[in-house]
Structures are given as structure tokens and as C-alpha cells.
Fold this sequence. Notes:
Mean pLDDT: 81
Distance between the termini: 9 Å
Structural class: mainly alpha
Amino acid sequence: MDKYKKLLSNTAILGIGTFGSKLLVFLLLPLYTACLSRAEYSTADIITQSANLLMPILSLGICDAVFRFTLDRDADRRRVLTTGLYVTFAGFLIFTLLFPLLNQIEYFDGYMWLIILYAFVANVHSILAQYVRACGMTAFFAIQGISSTAITIALNILFLVVLKIGLLGYVLSVVIADALVSLIIILVIRRDFSLSPSRIHKQTASLMLKFSIPMIPTTIFWWITNVSDRYMIKGFIGDDINGLYAAAFKIPTMLILLSGIFIEAWQFSAVTERDTESRKDHEIFFGTVFDSFQGMLCISAAGLIAFSKIFSKVLFAESYYTAWQYMPLLICATVFSSLVTFMGSVYLVDKKSVHSFVTSMIGALINIVFNLLLIPTPLGANGAALATFLSYFIVFIIRAVNTRKFIRFPLHIPKLIANTAIIGTQTVFMIFELKFWIAVQVIGIAAIFVINAKPILGGVMRILRRK
């Protein structure tokens, strides 16, 4: 199968399997914001984000290694999977023993047990899901994603509306859904699934950990870049504003979802195509895909920025409406977050996890500094959004330069600058509601579509013609 057609096919399957179900989660935002107060929503967000921070620590970052090493042609897939599971079980045992000590942290208000449980079950689900994705079971990978979302939504309704157990039910919905879907995956791959110690191979485990351990601080640093602002907003301004900020981030999450679907398909193609084509062809492949990817991101961002107020009005309870003012900057930050992830695929192909670590550390440090400088100013929570944007923007520039050592693909810089200028102008006019802000949004969407539509549509037509 042609590599472009294969990439488009995998993206379509993942898109069908993921976007529809995730869209339901956004449509249920009125339910979440109606059933949870701002303070409860803030606490629930802190619990889930803290669990996300714990995940790579508990598993030694092994989830990424399971995906990457399963892709190797000469890999013993069963050994890779078993090693990943054993590492995660060992981490869970250690944190269970440490629980009496960790539970003394007053900040988490007695929810440490839920954070540890959430992180463990999510890690197991992630390992199993990444394994089936690396095995090329793209359709099943999409189906298990649909199942996870459907179960989560059903449990959300049960716990929030029927049983009325608030934020505890909100978080437990995800934990139970991850556990049930993990069991489904195990049933499907039962021939490969084994917890026998004989399946653990010392050399395989050593290579996987050598790759994954640098990913621990990498993931932590990205967590700092993405989430530390919420802790600082909570500390500097309070739970009410943090609840608004957490709700506002749900709209940029739509962009993260779209780019994430593509990145999942792209990572598979980037690794598997490397050994089947010349270096020059591989660079052309990267450049062509990057051009279309950044175009789709910016077109989507322009639309989301323009309709920020409408999204807030339709999706949130009335008390959350003012969250719209934080959306435009967060959407811009998400664009560069996605571009940074794309550049990281270069490191994934060549197993250069140390480079991911260094660049993510720089981003985290920049984010913390700007958060401390900007949040206490009149910008408030928008200072946190600006800090997030600046950190991703700078890391993108660093990675764009650094990755040239490995794959020198065209970045289409003039177009990227034009796209950034347009969504930046939209953002300024939107946040400050400057004169003619509505006209600027319309012109911005039209301009960015004209700039980017041709390569995107041309690429799709080229694939269809080949088919």
C-alpha cells in the first residue's frame, strides 16, 4: 500500500473510532459543569492531572517503550508486552507500600488512594492499547477507544445524575472504564498475553528501560508545561478561577484530539517506512506530511478561536460562561504543542529519547518562570495561558533546529509564520474585544483557509488518484 494512502487510511480509522466518541464527552460538558461546582471541578481536575503526573513515575515510562519496541521487525512481541506489564505492577506495589506516607499530603485532601489507583489502571490500559496499535491492529485500537469512552460516559451519568456522588464518581468513571477495556483487550490478545516470569528477557528489559527511563522526566516536564499553571492559578487566584480555566481548556482539547488521532497514525508510518525507502524520500515524506499537518491545525485553530464565545455559551453552565476569555491563547498554545509532538516523532524514529528529555526540560523551566511572572499580573489566568504558549513556541523552534541533525525535511517557514500571525491577530482581537473583532475573525478564517487548503486538498486528491 502507498505510504500516503496507508497514513490516510490509518488516520481515518482512528478518526472514526475516536472523534465520534470523544465528541460525546464535549456534548456532556453541560452535565459536568451543572453537577460539579467550580471548586469541585477544580479538585477533580487536580486529581486527574496529578494521576497523569504519577503515571510515568509508577511505570518508569515503559508504555512508550512497549509501542516503540513492538514495532521492531525482529522483536519478540510477547517479551516486550510482558516486560512492560511487570514493570508497571512493580511500580504499583512500591507506591502501595508508600501510601501511608503519601496520604499525609494535605493538599490532596485524602484522595491519594484514588490518584494511585487511577495511575496504575491507566498505565495497564495504555500498555495494552499501545501494544495492539504497534501490532497493526488499528481498527481494534479504535474500537477499544470507543468502548472506553462509552463506558466512561455511561458511568458519568450513573454516578453524577443518578447516584449523585460528585467528583468521586467523575474520577471513578475513568478508572472503571480503563479496567474493563483492559480486560477486553486481554481477551483479544490472549495468545500474546502472559505474566510468566520466563517471558522476561534481561537484554530486552534493559534496552526498553534504557529507552523509557529518559521518558520519565520528559513526561513530567510536559506535565509541568501543560498543568503546572492550574496549581499556580489555584495558589495565586483561587479555586473559582481555576475551575473556569480547567473548563476553558476543554475546547483546545478538541484540537489536541484531532492532532492526536493523526499523530497516532503518523508515528506508526514514520517508523515503519524508514527502512523501506531512501533517506531523501523519507525527508520528502516528512516535509509533505508536516505541511498538511500544520495547515490543518491552523485552520482548526482559527475556527475554534472565532467561536470561543459560542462554545462557552452552548457547552458550559451559565456560571462557567466567562471561561471563553482563556480559550484563544490556550488554542494557540495547543497548535504549537501539536507541532512540538510532530517534531518529537523524529526522536521516536531514531530512539533519541534523551533529546526529547532535554527539550521538554527547557519547556518546563520556561513555563514555570513565565507562570510566576505573569499570573500575579492583571493578566491573571490569561498570563498562565500566555506562559504555556510561549514555552511551546520556544521548544518548537529548538526542536525545529535540533531535528535537522537527523532528518532535514522542509518546514515551509513562510507559511508557518503567516499562519501564526493570523491566529495571533485573531487571539488579540478576541480576548480584548477590540473594534471590528468579529470582522477580524471572519477574515482570519478565510485567509488561513486560502493559505493552507491547496496542499491539503492536493495531497488528498493525489492519494485518491493513486488508489
